């Protein structure tokens, strides 16, 4: 009897430790869920497809979705504050085609690229000002930014503009290979943006304020935190990422096009939510958003291997999004009960 009790006690202790860990790190549950889905998909694809070369496929996913990963980084900041930014796809298209036009007119790449990032920041600042000083809902304010950027893209050109500048094309054409893996400068930029964002959110006062504002804006004001400035900077960061994504997409495709990025804002939001960021704000991680982008990219890859129509990508992502929204609601309810 004593021996049986001694065996049961460590098991009970381990279960108790597991419950305490989940209670203290409940925000990580959706991230671990997304990571689990990614691993299951990888294992299933490797087992089902004989020619599924994991290093090459994952490298290809980063190559094809580098612009989406950069957009997801900026969107994570905005959603963490409890906002939304529907303009990112249009801003990406505008900065991309404007960059192609400027390069075609002989503007040096060292001038054109920073200018696109500044333009993205300016549109993000405009949206932030509408939200903070004119009390416009983030959905409507970012919709204004989306129409503005898309219209400006058509003003630049109604047709695609091919890029001939070797400096910009180098970002996509150069590959660094090692042990079956490869990466391009665009992929490096995307991963650096994730690393910088993760450090900012984890280790800086601004990052902690982002979480506080998204968790409870009124409490953040009462604590004397710079709520207005923080939300403005969050939208500026989203605009900067959209401008940078426009450059990456233009380098990837070799041309700027005013219809680029149609619906990309929804793909970005889906990747961020699948990665575990709460749409209500205050909880989430940029590393989770990166996992969400890889889940999205792997779904497209597997569907291509199956030879099915790409419409199944939308269906699958929609189903995953539904699951993660339900998980988010359960987390919010559990947090409300504990408080």
From TrEMBL:
Organism phylogeny: Bacteria, Bacillati, Actinomycetota, Actinomycetes, Micrococcales
One Gene Ontology term of the molecular function aspect: transmembrane transporter activity
InterPro entries per record: ABC_transp_permease
Organism: Cnuibacter physcomitrellae
Major location category of this protein: membrane
Domain of life: Bacteria
Protein name: Sugar ABC transporter permease YjfF
Annotated localization: Cell membrane
TM helices/strands, residue ranges: none
